[in-house]
Design goal:
Layout lengths: L4 H9 L6 H18 L1 H13 L8 H11 L9 E7 L4 E9 L2 E6 L3 H13 L3 E6 L4 H17 L7 E5 L4 H4 L7 E5 L2 H10 L4 E4 L4 E5 L5 H9 L4 E6 L10 E3 L2 H11 L4 E5 L3 H10 L4 E4 L17 E9 L13
Length: 333
């Protein structure tokens, strides 16, 4: 698999997408079949990454949920949506779903993010280059290889989806003239790094990065299970609590916890464990995050907060009522 950024970008720029619009549904279906068929080898590769202290054990139930969720997305590359009819002017107005082009997706190496962004970008026809620093290297490379194999087998270009590993993102962003969109999904520090370096339109998300404040340990066994998932959870512990987790940050009180999370947090999903209704209300009201949970895992709701519309362009389509489109396009009543 190629790991020269200039070659990878050159491959992306020559991708022909003519056949893609006709095969999107089949591609998504066959990707699910391929992941199921290769489950054993994915598990083996995943275990190797874990033994090297370079990953966590994946839950295939989450992968099933990702595919289930993607089937509910209505938007498809090349699709024409007929939205309005002007009887006076005898004109039909509509929108055609178009790709953004060449998209760079910077991640912290989480394979769930990789899979979901593969699916979302295939739906809207983007070429995608995933960029990370090598976390879960074997697992992510295998996911890309499986995806490229399915694309080729169905007549779609394998270079629609590629991956590049590097400790230095400068060489990636130096190619800004050949990049149409940058997406960063990862920790707050990774987001800030990408925002500093990117010269292109950039979307950031803390998806799959969580923040957790503990001021009560009534649910200590449940808290231990959260930490055992291996997911990136930044823990803040009220300093009087006699409990400790690796790399946890001690805070004086709820005010300091909220201030720390709002400044350093991932702004995706946070949780508070408390017996105080007042503190729970304050936390919900003041913390800056898309999802807030109380005495429940911050990982319980895992829906990426990057929408399909963020990854695509829309072309306005205007034509006379007398024009006959294909049968599968309905004229609005």
């Amino acid at each position: 698999m190629e790991n020269n950024i200039d070659t990878i970008i050159a491959n992306a720029l020559i991708v022909n997408k003519d056949i893609l619009a006709k095969n999107i549904e089949v591609i998504i279906q066959q990707l699910k079949v391929a992941f199921d068929k290769n489950k054993e080898v994915i598990v083996q590769t995943n275990e190797i990454d874990k033994k090297k202290d370079n990953g966590f054990i994946m839950d295939f139930g989450i992968i099933d949920n990702l595919f289930q969720s993607i089937r509910g997305e209505a938007l498809r590359y090349g699709q024409v949506t007929l939205s309005q009819k002007d009887d006076e002017k005898k004109i039909i107005y509509g929108k055609q779903i178009m790709d953004k082009g060449n998209v760079i997706v910077v991640t912290d190496g989480n394979p769930y993010v990789l899979i979901e962004m593969i699916l979302k970008n295939i739906l809207v026809g983007n070429t995608v280059i995933f960029v990370d620093q090598g976390y879960m290297y074997g697992t992510n490379r295998l996911i890309i290889e499986i995806t490229q194999s399915v694309l080729e087998r169905l007549g779609a270009p394998r270079y629609l989806i590629q991956i590049y590993n590097s400790e230095n993102f400068d060489e990636v962003f130096a190619n800004y003239a050949n990049i149409d969109l940058v997406v960063c999904v990862g920790s707050r520090s990774l987001q800030n790094l990408v925002l500093t370096k990117s010269k292109n339109e950039t979307i950031v998300s803390g998806y799959e990065n969580f923040d957790l404040y503990i001021e009560d340990t009534t649910h200590i066994e449940f808290l231990k299970k959260i930490m055992e998932t291996g997911l990136p959870v930044q823990v803040y512990i009220q300093e009087d609590q006699e409990v400790d987790f690796d790399e946890a940050i001690r805070v004086a009180d709820i005010e300091e916890a909220i201030a720390q999370i709002n400044y350093n947090g991932n702004k995706y999903s946070v949780a508070i464990f408390t017996q105080s209704a007042d503190h729970a209300s304050q936390f919900i009201r003041e913390v800056k995050s898309a999802i807030v949970t109380v005495n429940t895992s911050p990982t319980i709701e895992r829906i990426i907060d990057i929408k399909q519309t963020d990854l695509m362009n829309e072309k306005t389509v205007i034509y006379p009522m007398s024009f006959k489109f294909e049968d599968h396009l309905e004229i609005p009543s």
